Amino acid sequence: MRESLPWSAYAPLVPGLVFLALFLVVPLGATLWLSLSPNVLVRFEAPGLDNFAYLLGKAYYLDVLMRTVRIAAVTTAIALLIGYPAAYVLRDVSERLGSTMIIGLTFPILAGPLVVVLGWMILLSDGGPLIRPLVRLGLTGPLRLLGTETAIVVGLVHFTLPFVVLTLFAVLKEIPHDLLEAARSLGAGRIQVMRRVVWPLSLPGVVSAALIAFSLAASSYVSPHYLGGATQLTLTTLVAQFILATFNSELAAAAATMLLVVMAVVIFGFTKATARAVRA
Amino acid sequence: MIGRIYLALVYLFIVGPAAMIVVDSFNAATSFPSPFESPTLRWYLAIWAHDEFLRSIRTSTIVALAAAAIATGLALPAAYALVRHPLRGGNIVATLFVGPLLVPQIVMGLAMLQLLGLAGVDLGLGGLIAVHAVYVMPFTVRLIMTSLARFDFTLAEAARTLGAGRLATLRRVTLPLIRTGLVAGFTFAFILSFVNLPLSLFLTTPRTATLPIEMFAYMESRIDPLVAAIGALVLIAAVAFTVTLERVFRLRLAG
Amino acid sequence: MTHKITMTRRAMLLGAAAAPLIARPALAQRATLSVSTWGGVTQDGIKAYVAPEFEKRTGATLAYDIGGQGARYNKLLAQRNNPPADVFFSTDEAVIAGRRAGILTSASRKNLPNLANIHAWAQTVTENDGEGTIAGAPYTLLAYALAYNPAVVKDKPTSWADMWRPEFQGKFAFAAPVHSQMPAFVTLAAELAGGSLDAGFKKLAELRPSKLTVFWTDWAPLNKSGDVTLATEFDYYVETMKSQGYPIDYVIPKEKAIGCPEYVSIVKGTKHQAIAEAFLDLMLSPQVQTAFAQETFQGPTNKLVKLTAASEARCACGARVDQLRFFDPKVFADNRAVWTERLNTEVVPHWRAR
C-alpha cells in the first residue's frame, strides 16, 4: 500500500511547504547571514562567528541569555504544577460544562497577550486590587512586582497555562475511567492509582505540555517588555532593543539566532532525556 | 469538592487579568493604573476621536483576513493529503507544518525585515501578510486535520461511484462535512493574526500600522484607560466569535 | 422672474450634486504630508495648533506616524527608497545621525522666513549641505531635569549629585542606556568623578536605579504607587504628569539642567519638499510656539513669542534658558554606539547586582 502511492498523493503538500520555505526559511537564512557579518561594535572579516563570541563574552549578554532560559524553565515548572491538577479535575466535569470551560480557557489566548498584560499591569501595581489589600492587612510590606523577574514569570505562567491545560486535558481524558475503577477495586489507594496508573499514562502529555510551555515562554515578547523592563531584558526584548534603539541589525540577528539555538537545544535535549521514561 | 474549588481558582487566575481590563475601561481616573474612581464611558467615546485606531482596525482586518485566507487555502490540501493516505514521511511533513510554532514571532518579523532589507525591497502589506500567514498556518493545519480525521472518506468514494465528478464530490460531500474544521481554522487564524503584536513590530509603516502596533505606540506616549477600552472591545469580539463558533458548529477544541 | 430664479436654483442644485463628481480628481491629488512624531502631547499639539493653519496654507492634509524616536528612526532606515514619512521629529543628535545615515535632508532657508527670529542657542545642528540650506527646524527647547515626589521627599534635590543620595537608591527612575539624553549623563558623571570617561562610568555604576526609562509612561505608575521618588525626566512631561494628578515636581540642578532643542527635519526622498518646508516654517512661527508653550509646556525658540508669567514659569524659556547647559550633539552622535554598549556591559550589570 505504502509503496504504491503515486506522487500525486504528495502534490497537495507542495504549495504549503513552498510557502513556508519562501517566507520562513529564506528570511531566516537572511538573519543567519547577517549574524555572521561585522558591524559598528564588532569588526571582523565576514563571515565569522565573532558576534556570537562577543555576546557570549560579555556578562551583560550572558545574563540576558541565562535569564531567558531561567524564566522559561521556572514558568514551565509552575505552569505544569498548576495545570496538571486542573486538567485532571476538568476531566470529571460534565460534558456540557466541560466544553464551555475548555472554550473559556482560550479567552486569554484569543484576546491577545497585549490586552492580558495590561490587566496584569493593573493587578501587579502596588496600588492595585491584588497587593493593596495584602499591604493593608499587614500581610506584606510594600511590594514592588512590576519591573521584576517575578512579574515576568507571573505573566508568562498565565500566558502558557491555557496551552498546558488543553494539552494535558487531551491526554488525561483518554485514560478510561474503567481502568481507574479496576485499579481501585484491586485495592490501590488514591495516591497509588495516581502514581502507578494516571501519571505514567499521562507522561507523553506532560512532555509535550512542557515543551509547549518552554517554547512559548522563551519566545514571548509582550510579557518581558511590559512587566519586566530595561534591567530585565530577555533575548526577545534584546532583539527589539538592537533594532529599535541601537540600530544594530547584525547583533539583533546574532541574538535571534542564539534564541533559536537555545530553544532547539532545550527541546531536543528534553525530548531525548524523557524519551525513555515516556516509552516505559 | 476540593477539586472544584481548585479549578475555580485556576479559572479566576486565567480570566482575572482580562476582567480587570474590562473594569478599568470604565474607570474615570486619568492616570494608569489607578484605583477605581467613578464609572465613565468617556474612554469608549474617545476611541472615535482617534482616527489612527479606526484606520489600524481596518489594516488589522485586511491583514488578518488575507493571512487567514492564505493559511486556510494552503492548509486544506496539505491536511487532506496528510490524513487521506498514510504518507511515507507523513509525520515529518506534519511536523514541518507546525514548525512555525517553534520560531519566536519576533524572530519571524526580524527575519522578514532583514530579508527585505538585503533584497532592497520596501516594507509593505505583502511582507506583513506573509509573516502572519506563516504564523497561523500550524493552527489551520491542525484544526483541519482534526476535523478531517473524523471524516468518513468512504462517503466521498460512494459519491464518486454514484457518478459524481471530482469537483462535485469535493463541493457537495467533502467540504460540507469538514466545514467545521475550515471555519474554525479560518476564524482562529483571523483572531490570532488580529491580536498579534511581535510579528508586526518591525514590519509596519505608518500606512500599514496594525491595531496592536497603534496600541503599543499609544502606550509609549501616555497611559490612560483608553487602551483598556480598546482592549475590552477586542476581548468581547474575540469571545463572541468563539462562543458563536462553539454554539453553531459544535466545535471541539480538545480532540 | 420667478421662473428664472427657479431655473437658477435648479441649476445650482444640479451643480452642487455634480460637484463632488467633478471635484474628485482634484481631491485625489490633494497631498498628504506624513508626520513622524511622538504620540501624546506633541501629536495632540500638532493636531490642534498646526494642522488647521497648515491645511489652509498648503491645501494639503496631515497624517501621523507616532512612536518613540528609535522606532520611527528605524522605519526610515528600513525604507530609504520609499520613505514612510515626509517630516521627522527628533533630538538634535538624531538629526546629525540621520544626515550621516542618508535618511534626512536639508530645507531651504529662504522658505523658512521664521528662521530669522529663532534664538541662536536653539540652532545646535550646524551641518548643512549648501549656502542657503539648514538641517532642520529647532521648534522647541526642553529641559531634562530631576523630578521628585514632593509628598515623600523632604529634602528636595538640588544637584545632579543627589542622584547618588542613599535615600533614592532603589527608588530612582533613571534614563535607560538607549535614552536620548544618556550621553549627557556619561559626560556629567565623568565631570562629577573628576574628569575621565572611565571614572564617569564607574560613578554611574554606583547608582541603584529601580527602573530604567525611555518614556515617562515607563515610570509614571511607579511614581503613583510611591515606588519611585526621584527620576530624570523632561520638564514638559513632568508638567503633563502634574496636570494629571501625579505627585511629582521637578528642580533644575545647580550644575544646570540639560538643554534639549528638539528638531523637525525633512526626510530624504520626500515627494513633498515644498509643503514639508511650509510645515517646518509653521513649527517655527510665534503662533504655533505660543500655543505649544501654553498648552503643552514646550519652550519656544522664536524670539517673538510672548508668554504670560504663569506659562513662562512652566516651560524652558526666558531666564531659565541660562540655567540650561547645551551639549554638542555631534559628540553624542559620534560616541553613542560605543557609550551605550559600555553602559550596557559595564554599568547595567552593577545596577542589577543588589
Describe the SSE topology:
The complex is a heterotrimer of chains A (280), B (255) and C (354).
Chain A: H1 13-35, H2 50-57, H3 59-90, H4 95-111, H5 113-124, H6 131-136, H7 149-172, H8 177-185, H9 190-219, H10 222-228, H11 235-244, H12 249-279
Chain B: H1 2-24, H2 42-47, H3 51-84, H4 90-98, H5 105-119, H6 125-149, H7 153-161, H8 166-177, H9 179-194, H10 211-221, H11 226-249
Chain C: H1 2-28, E1 32-37, H2 41-58, E2 61-66, H3 69-78, E3 87-91, H4 92-100, E4 104-105, E5 107-108, E6 133-134, E7 137-148, E8 172-175, H5 182-192, H6 197-205, E9 211-213, H7 216-225, E10 230-234, H8 235-243, E11 249-251, E12 257-267, H9 273-283, H10 286-296, H11 309-312, E13 324-325, H12 329-352
Parallel strand pairs in C: 1-2, 1-3, 8-9, 8-10, 12-13
Antiparallel strand pairs in C: 3-12, 4-12, 5-6, 7-10, 7-11, 7-12
Helix pairs in contact in C: 2-9, 2-10, 4-12, 5-6, 5-12, 6-12
What does this structure look like?
Chain A is an all-alpha fold and 280 residues long. Chain A has a single domain (56-279), classed as MetI-like fold (Orthogonal Bundle). Chain A is built from twelve helices and no strands. In chain A, helix 3 (59-90) crosses helix 9 (190-219) and helix 7 (149-172) runs antiparallel to helix 10 (222-228). Chain B is mostly helical and 255 residues long. Chain B has a single domain (51-249), classed as Orthogonal Bundle (MetI-like fold). Chain B has helices spanning 2-24, 42-47, 51-84, 90-98, 105-119, 125-149, 153-161, 166-177, 179-194, 211-221, 226-249. In chain B, helix 1 packs across helix 11 (226-249), helix 3 (51-84) runs antiparallel to helix 9 (179-194) and helix 3 crosses helix 10 (211-221). The two termini of chain B are 27 Å apart. Chain C is an alpha/beta fold and 354 residues long. Chain C has two domains: 31-140 and 261-315, D-Maltodextrin-Binding Protein, domain 2; 142-258 and 330-352, D-Maltodextrin-Binding Protein, domain 2 (3-Layer(aba) Sandwich). Chain C is 43% helix and 18% strand. Chain C is globular and about 60 Å long.
